[in-house]
């Protein structure tokens, strides 16, 4: 038991800091400092910079081109990026389908897909939810019918985050109608440029086109794009949920949210004094920060387990529930601190309110999704109740 | 960075768990509520023989030279079954100030017999109207013919009703100093009191209690000693709380799996399942942050130590309150009776939450620290 960082680890922290200072383009650095919203192209630009440094996939094994950092270094890298406010990378390739391809893919699939995910040349999105399959994911109806050397896919996915920018989508599809619902599902990788695929952006509550409705109309998908066994997709889906929860449960968005909250409170004046000097507000922020510290330790225990080679299990569900609830509370308090300025909408021209505050309202709205996506927090509680506490059905 | 316990630590935890389950299940704590002392010196001696009382002390004073993490492993098990022996007042509080502030001779005289399980100790630092402030004491120590004369009053002295020696804080020439008193010294009145959780403490009145200067802990300033001791105390409360919340969660989940209403197990109800999960989440957060407070309790930098201890003490309150209150709610009527153990845990949690600074105190301490602005 030792929570201190060794001299080598502290040196790594210095290396990360100087890298972030030197390698981050000025326009991204400015946004990072203010905690502003990053557009997809800015996220991908940052992805490529991290790739060039070799740090884009700290959790991937070296054999697949990852950095294979130990738990302490992963933690340092994530923490320093969070404190800097650097863009959060798109998780769909790096954190989600990538690890699944490593675990369940054929050597051909690994060679074909992993390099593009790493380099950021190929962007991915996730085709899980459907209009009638949200929390009850296994009731999904998108079908893939085998026809010679390919499948023919028909159906609709929805809430497809950044589907309009994605080159590929990983989908849960029904390949057997005759059996019970979990048993007839397969995991399919689909090229978004295939004929019959259409991604229609829709606005989120935050006014950003972060979601899509994705339609599949007789889309031909080569059979070599099946990941894992036919009708074995549910096993992959469950494995992925673990990765997704660890990711959504990450402490980084909460840390950067608290940092932005303090900056805004420092720049907001009441009775000629910075609002951050108000002892009542300080204790409100302190409570959030102390809970974030408890969550950070829970998170670090999970990272240490993963670095020790354990796959994320149901206990990662608590990370998702805690992190997302905390993030919403940070958003809530930030809006409160802003007072009248919280009335601003992100569509206003730059300079109407401070750039730091311009996107707070939008983020506050968008973040209502965090307790819903990746399996709603109620579904997470169902999982913990059954899988960990062993409560009866 | 390393989250694993060493093999020695795993063995220590296992031994402690087995010993506590066999020798001091919660039924024993329930019975000892009626006892005037509230614990047994024979059990204290056994704990000494197991080496538990020696863990955090250096080998020079007969200790084992262990870390606070080792102490925390013991405390977690004591918390699980509410073991009433005065481990915290004697080892963690008084033991700490003697180890950090006592001379070799004082340690030989007061600490060694405690490590051997022959005596117990107490630390008297709290006063009426001071709340969690440890510095602005009204108790005074005046120099008189080469010795000190102490006057004042100390409240809620844990184990003060039974300890052979009581370390008392007093203001001397504008400085806080600590003195080791014997319980039978002239001028010392010890009023035993029942505490909320069925244990014992004391109010102590000092009227011109005369002590020689060899009773002054002079190796470090008194404020510094108390500051360290109370952070140890808070970290100890957290460690005990980890075991306590785990036990309460287990009892509640078992109850949900066995109790039937409407002809089904009540654990099938989603409303109750989600409540139990929220209890689990709070217990996990407490366990996680307890790693930090246990490790950093020994940290040389007071800033880092304070932040970690406050973070953990706040979660002890936020999470500990949630777990113990909901445990009663989910047990229903039976949870409101004295005969069910849930109530004993509920009461102990309130004591742990109050001792060494409550939730408000630690939130404010963090909010006004350099770490908050850093």
CATH topology of the largest domain in chain A: Butyryl-CoA Dehydrogenase, subunit A, domain 3
Overall outline of chain B? globular
Order of helices and strands of chain B: HHHHHHEEEEEEEHEEHHHHH
How much helicity do the residues of chain A have? 40-55%
- Taken together, the total number of domains of chain A comes to 3
Describe the structure.
The complex is a heterodimer of chains A (393) and B (374). By secondary structure, chain A is of the alpha+beta class. Chain A has 3 domains: 7-89, Orthogonal Bundle (Butyryl-Coa Dehydrogenase, subunit A, domain 1), CATH 1.10.540; 124-233, Butyryl-CoA Dehydrogenase, subunit A, domain 2, CATH 2.40.110; 249-387, Up-down Bundle (Butyryl-CoA Dehydrogenase, subunit A, domain 3). Chain A is built from 13 helices and 10 strands. Chain B has 3 domains: 7-120, Acyl-CoA dehydrogenase/oxidase, N-terminal domain (Butyryl-Coa Dehydrogenase, subunit A, domain 1); 122-215, Beta Barrel (Butyryl-CoA Dehydrogenase, subunit A, domain 2); 222-373, Butyryl-CoA Dehydrogenase, subunit A, domain 3 (Up-down Bundle). Helices cover 52% and strands 16% of the residues of chain B. In chain B, strand 6 (188-194) and strand 7 (200-212) form a beta hairpin. Classes of the chains: A alpha+beta (393), B alpha+beta (374). Chain A binds chain B through residues 1-5, 9, 71-72, 75, 279, 282-283, 285-287, 289-291, 293-295, 297-298, 300-301, 304, 315, 318, 321-322, 378, 381-382, 384-385, 388-393, and chain B through 1-6, 9, 67, 69, 253, 256-257, 265, 267-268, 270, 273-274, 276-278, 280-281, 284-286, 288-289, 291-292, 294-296, 310-312, 314-315, 318, 360, 363-364, 366-368, 372.
């Amino acid at each position: 038991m030792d929570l201190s960082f060794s001299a080598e680890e502290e040196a790594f922290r210095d290396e990360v800091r100087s890298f972030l200072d030197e390698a981050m383009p000025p326009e991204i650095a400015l946004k990072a400092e203010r905690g502003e919203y990053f557009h997809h192209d800015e996220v991908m630009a940052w992805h490529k910079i991290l790739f060039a440094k070799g740090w884009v996939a700290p959790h991937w094994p070296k054999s697949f081109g990852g950095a294979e950092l130990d738990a302490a270094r992963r933690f340092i890298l994530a923490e320093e990026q969070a404190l800097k406010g650097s863009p959060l990378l798109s998780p769909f390739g790096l954190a989600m389908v990538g690890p699944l391809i490593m675990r369940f893919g054929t050597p051909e699939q690994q060679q074909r897909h992993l390099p593009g995910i790493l380099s950021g040349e190929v962007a991915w999105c996730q085709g899980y939810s459907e209009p009638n399959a949200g929390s009850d994911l296994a009731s999904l109806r998108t079908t893939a019918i085998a026809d010679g050397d390919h499948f023919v896919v028909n159906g609709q996915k929805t809430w497809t985050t950044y589907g309009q920018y994605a080159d590929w989508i990983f989908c849960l599809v029904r390949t057997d109608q005759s059996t019970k619902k979990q048993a007839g599902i397969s995991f399919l990788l689909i090229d978004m440029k295939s004929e019959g695929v259409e991604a229609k952006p829709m606005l989120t509550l935050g006014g950003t086109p972060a979601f899509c409705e994705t339609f599949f109309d007789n889309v031909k998908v080569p059979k070599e794009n099946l990941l894992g066994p036919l009708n074995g997709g549910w096993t992959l889906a469950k494995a992925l949920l673990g990765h997704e929860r660890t990711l959504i449960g990450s402490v980084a968005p909460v840390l950067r949210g608290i940092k932005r909250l303090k900056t805004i409170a420092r720049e907001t004046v009441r009775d000629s004094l910075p609002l951050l000097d108000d002892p009542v507000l300080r204790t409100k922020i302190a409570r959030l920060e102390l809970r974030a510290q408890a969550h950070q330790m829970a998170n670090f225990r999970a990272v240490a387990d993963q670095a020790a080679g354990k796959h994320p299990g149901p206990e990662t569900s608590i990370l998702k529930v805690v992190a997302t609830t905390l993030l919403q509370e940070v958003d809530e308090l930030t809006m409160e601190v802003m007072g009248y300025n919280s009335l601003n909408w992100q569509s206003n021209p730059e300079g109407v309110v401070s750039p730091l505050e311009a996107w707070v309202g939008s983020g506050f709205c968008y973040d209502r999704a965090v307790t819903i996506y990746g399996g709603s927090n109620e579904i997470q509680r169902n999982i913990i109740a059954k899988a960990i506490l062993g409560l009866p059905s | 960075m390393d989250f694993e316990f060493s093999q020695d630590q795993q063995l220590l935890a296992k031994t402690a768990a087995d010993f506590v389950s066999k020798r001091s299940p919660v039924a024993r704590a329930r019975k000892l509520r009626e006892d005037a002392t509230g614990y047994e010196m024979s059990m204290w001696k056994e704990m000494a023989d197991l080496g538990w009382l020696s863990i955090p002390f250096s080998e020079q004073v007969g200790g084992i030279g262990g870390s606070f993490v080792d102490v925390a492993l013991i405390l977690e098990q004591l918390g699980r079954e509410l073991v009433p022996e005065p481990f915290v007042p004697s080892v963690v509080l008084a033991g700490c100030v003697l180890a950090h502030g006592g001379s070799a001779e004082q340690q030989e005289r007061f600490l060694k017999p405690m490590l051997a399980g022959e005596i117990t100790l107490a630390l008297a630092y709290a006063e009426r109207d001071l709340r969690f402030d440890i510095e602005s004491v009204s108790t005074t120590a005046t120099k008189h013919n080469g010795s000190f004369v102490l006057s004042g009053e100390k409240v809620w002295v844990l184990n003060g009703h039974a300890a052979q020696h009581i370390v008392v804080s007093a203001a001397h020439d504008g400085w806080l100093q600590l003195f080791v008193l014997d319980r039978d010294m002239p001028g010392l009145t010890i009023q035993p009191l029942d505490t909320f959780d069925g244990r014992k403490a004391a109010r102590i009145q000092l009227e011109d209690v005369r002590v020689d200067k060899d009773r002054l802990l002079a190796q470090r300033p008194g404020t510094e000693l108390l500051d360290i001791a109370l952070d140890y105390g808070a970290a100890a409360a957290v460690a005990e709380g980890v075991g306590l919340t785990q036990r309460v969660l287990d009892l509640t989940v078992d109850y949900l799996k066995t109790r039937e209403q409407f002809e089904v197990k009540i654990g099938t109800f989603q409303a109750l399942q989600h409540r139990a999960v929220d209890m689990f989440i709070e217990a996990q957060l407490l366990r996680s942050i307890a790693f930090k407070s246990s490790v950093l309790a020994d940290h040389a930098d007071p800033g880092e130590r304070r932040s970690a201890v406050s973070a953990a003490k706040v979660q002890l309150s936020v999470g500990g309150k949630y777990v113990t209150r909901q445990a009663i709610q989910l047990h229903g009527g039976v949870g409101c009776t004295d005969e069910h153990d849930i109530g004993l845990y509920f009461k102990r949690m309130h004591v742990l939450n109050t001792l060494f600074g409550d939730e408000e105190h630690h939130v404010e301490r963090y909010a006004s620290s350099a770490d908050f602005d850093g």
